Amino acid sequence: MSASDLTPSQLAAVEHVEGPLLVLAGPGSGKTRVITRRIARLVEHGVRPGEMLAITFTNKAAREMAERVEKLLPGQRVWVTTFHKFCARILRQHGSALGLQPNFTIFDTSDQHQLLRQVLHDVDVDATHFPPAKIGHQISQAKNELITADIYSRRFEERVGNHMQAVVARVYPKYQQRLLEANAVDFDDLLLHVAGLLNDHEELRNSLDQRFRYILVDEYQDTNQAQYQIVAALSQIEPNLCATGDPDQSIYGWRGAQIENILRFERDFPEVKVIRLEDNFRSTPEILQTADALIVHNRQRKAKVLRARNPSGPPVELRLYANGRNEADAIAGEIRELVGSGERRWSDFAIFYRVNALSRTLETALARAHVPHQVAGSVAFFERSEIKDLLAYLRLIENPQDRIAFLRCVNTPPRGIGKTSVDRLGRWADEAQLPLLESAGKAIQVPKLPKRAGKALVEFHHLIGHLALHTSGPVADLLAAVLAETGYAAGLDPLSADEQELQRRGNIDELLSAAREYDEQAGDEASLTGFLESASLAQDIDSLDSDLGTVTLMTLHAAKGLEFPCVYLIGVEQNLLPHERSLRTNDPRQLEEERRLLFVGITRAEQQLVLTHTLRRELHGRELSTIPSDFIEEMSLERRDFSDQSGDDFEFPVPADDDDDYQPVATAPKTEKPKNLPRLTTAAALQNGTLDTIAIPTGFQVGMQVRHPRYGLGTVTEISPGFSRRRTVTVQFRDDGREESFIADKCPLQPVGNL
């Protein structure tokens, strides 16, 4: 294996063989190259591929890593996977100790919420006051901290809790019972159950520890307590654990990630070798200097310096706009202009934001400007209604105990089985301790069940049994049989002009394509269980198509692990970034995570980075004044003020002549707005006991003291000549000595007297 393209620190990590290794990898420092090259180097040292396990967090990262390993070691199979897929495999092999059968179903979030709603009804709790989503979040947090239902209930009994905890203490055990009855697990169970198995079954733990002699974990800073325990359990006999990560990029604390896991690695493994990867191959020096200046303010970190290996580029800009619409329109217009000039491609651009609510204005502006774009994390493919319907059939065929799948497809398409009939069947099934599908086959025994509904339920039972005969063949063939024999697609006219119907038909075709692709890739190992598992563990970012040739919009959390030539990072304002939650709790750890989140966004940019904020922004149906983020003052930025631009005055560049469908966007006629002139109460009015006010003269003079709502007190230092509406006023502000220029007719400056 050639090492000519490795830096000295990368080479040191690749050459390490025995003992624990901690690789502190800054953004863009080539950590994936180090992990894959190290795998190849270990094989050269005589380690068998089957003795290695590489674990990361996203399907995308796992695919890319596996592809690189395949190029380095053609035909030699190294297990590269995600935590959840690894745990699913272990549970399918050893889950019987927990009462699980190998064909268990993995419930997604919507399945989980539906089951929780049923449990809330069973324990007589109002789902309006205690929504399933909130209950589910509490249970998820508990599982990530390895708190089982029994432990949770016992702790609640031992101490005084709040109403929410009281409900969770009642719901959590019943929820787990229902999952087991359905032969199902949720996402968090995958980790919780495996951690429990490794803790309680020493023989299994030792067997897996000796099987996987070398474990390589990517993004170690994002591990939660359960993942930490799993990795630690598998590194006792053979402590050849390689943890690669960066504390400065730990941004998932809200879902249980513990930055302490990487910070204490040296205490957990005293014999560890620590290597820092500080050479950055992604960004310009200007971008890295901005990132370094920001993150140095965090205390929970391991110090390192990012060294740029790329030439200098443009300065990092901070732009101020009047409002969110101006911000979005300006970005859309600039992107179109740069692509139109041939300087850039659509796919060069990404727009990041802290909260999804900011995407609406951007999407509208991009559509008006005819800028092609995709939104990462929008309605995921496997979350679409028709896809979930068909997957429910496949789930029920694979796992006849799956209650949620039965309820979704029993009357889809309509079979004359109403809710009342299903409820009666459910009560009878619970009393008989039978799965719903088995009970459907005995529907004639259910009291007060209409004959028509009973007959339909028996036919449905036979239908699922007949479809189960197809499970030995390709998944695509089984799915085609489901479509044909259920009549699901019969109501969809392939020649219809209805857009919604066309999309549904297209989604079904895409699911068939996904099944065929799975069959081809899995080969002899293809199975219905495997296909359903891949669908259940699909992630929002999986739907992102880097070859689509569009501008990409996404949250900062979704941007982790990606890179783009040009990045706009919008909404750098208090209560957005940092998020209001971190400010409300006054928890310095949460504030540091918000700073890390901004650091991650900054370091996704390769060549050009623009940060933006506004004077006013509309959120949650209200337009409010904003405050610049405190993080802004921690960075050296080139500031540009566009806040004097009126949204009505903004015009998009006209598209090229070949855009025949382009039509100018109609705008409402302008109306004269009353001017809100500043006013004051005079001394004479105060003496007379009245509150009469007079308008403050709007003329500015050099030496006049003024107040700006954002920058505070300042002094007018220069006024451009003339009396036009575009006359500028230059002010030097007291607090930081900055000098800013404003359009006199539109600036928010308020005269407060002369010095």
Q: Which key features would you list for this structure?
A:
755 residues, 7-stranded parallel beta sheet, 6-stranded parallel beta sheet, 27 helices
Could you tell me the number of beta strands? 26
Report helical residue fraction. Answer: 40-55%
Overall average pLDDT: 84
Q: Could you give a short account of the major beta sheet?
A: 7 strands, parallel
Summarize it.
The protein has 755 residues and is α/β, with parallel strands linked by helices. Helices cover 41% and strands 16% of the residues.
How is this fold's topology laid out?
Blueprint: H1 8-15, E1 21-25, H2 31-44, E2 52-56, H3 59-72, E3 79-82, H4 83-94, E4 105-107, H5 109-122, H6 132-144, H7 149-158, H8 163-181, E5 184-186, H9 187-200, H10 202-211, E6 214-217, H11 225-233, E7 240-245, H12 260-263, H13 265-268, E8 273-277, E9 279-280, H14 285-295, E10 307-308, E11 317-321, H15 324-340, E12 349-353, H16 359-368, E13 373-375, H17 385-398, H18 403-409, H19 419-432, H20 436-440, H21 451-467, H22 475-486, H23 499-522, H24 528-536, E14 551-555, E15 564-569, H25 580-585, H26 588-602, E16 605-614, E17 616-619, E18 622-625, E19 638-642, E20 679-681, H27 683-688, E21 693-695, E22 704-708, E23 712-719, E24 728-733, E25 739-743, E26 750-754
Parallel strand pairs: 1-7, 1-8, 2-3, 2-6, 4-5, 6-7, 9-10, 11-16, 11-19, 12-14, 12-15, 13-14, 15-16
Antiparallel strand pairs: 17-18, 20-21, 22-23, 22-26, 23-24, 24-25
